[in-house]
Design a protein that fits this description.
By secondary structure, this protein is α/β, with parallel strands linked by helices. It contains ten helices and eight strands. The mean pLDDT is 90.
Length: 238
């Protein structure tokens, strides 16, 4: 990264699963050794996203709204269930919104990076309606390899994020109405019969905890428990 260029990184909510537990507190410090000046979890944007989802529901006045959070689900709706496209929330994904907010705060000439377990987020960032979000999208596997290659952990120490999300924002990561593509297809086939409400659909089985670009530190069977352990560690934040 060019010297003097303001650089920020947004870490997708499942980031604790990319690191050994003893490294959790050192993640912000380690990332500064890669050149990042602002380091935040994407979950800091959740309060704004909830407001934008409510605004979308009020404007569209549809009985059912489907989250636009997961790019696999958005593509599934567009390609296989075009009649459900009007049900997709007009609110941007948390990743898009947070990266735009980081860009606004850093100003012209900055670089914003999004780190994720989801390779489909690359396509999301390239969509015209998501312009002004991430300049680069890297997977958690790529990020951990980068940290190891640069020896960043040897210099890292416990440090807080530039901004931290609340306990409740992280707790939301463990909640979805449907996860897995087969379950998403079943729900989309019966949109007309759904009770009114907002539906969180995630394309990967087990949601973002099952993202394909997470390092194999934790088996899928324990990832929920590991996330709950991390969530409890930030409970004091409210």
């Amino acid at each position: 990264m060019a010297s003097g260029t303001p650089v920020a990184i947004s870490l997708a909510p499942s980031f604790p699963l990319a690191f050994a537990k003893e490294k959790w507190l050192a993640v912000p410090s380690a990332l500064t050794h890669l050149g990042f000046g602002i380091i935040e979890p994407t979950t800091v944007a959740l309060q704004d996203i909830m407001r934008l989802r409510l605004e979308s529901a009020e404007q569209r006045k549809t009985r059912v709204q489907i989250s636009s959070c997961c790019p696999k689900v958005v593509k599934l709706v567009e390609n296989a269930f075009p009649g459900a496209v009007p049900l997709l929330s007009a609110a941007p994904s948390p990743a898009t919104h947070h990266c735009r907010d980081l860009r606004r705060r850093l100003g012209p000439g900055c670089v914003v990076v999004f780190a994720t377990p989801c390779p489909d987020k690359v396509d999301e960032a390239l969509r015209p309606e998501n312009s002004g979000s991430a300049d680069e999208v890297i997977t958690f596997i790529e990020l951990t390899d980068w940290l190891d290659h640069r020896g960043a952990w040897e210099k890292a120490e416990a440090r807080e994020f530039s901004s931290q999300a609340s306990y409740w924002a992280y707790a939301g990561l463990l909640v979805s109405d449907v996860s897995g593509m087969s379950g998403c297809r079943r729900l989309l086939r019966q949109c007309d019969a759904l009770a009114p409400g907002f539906y969180e659909l995630l394309g990967c089985q087990h949601g973002c905890l099952g993202g394909p670009r997470l390092p194999n530190l934790y088996s899928i069977g324990v990832r929920g428990a590991v996330m709950r352990e991390y969530i409890e560690s930030v409970r004091h934040l409210g």
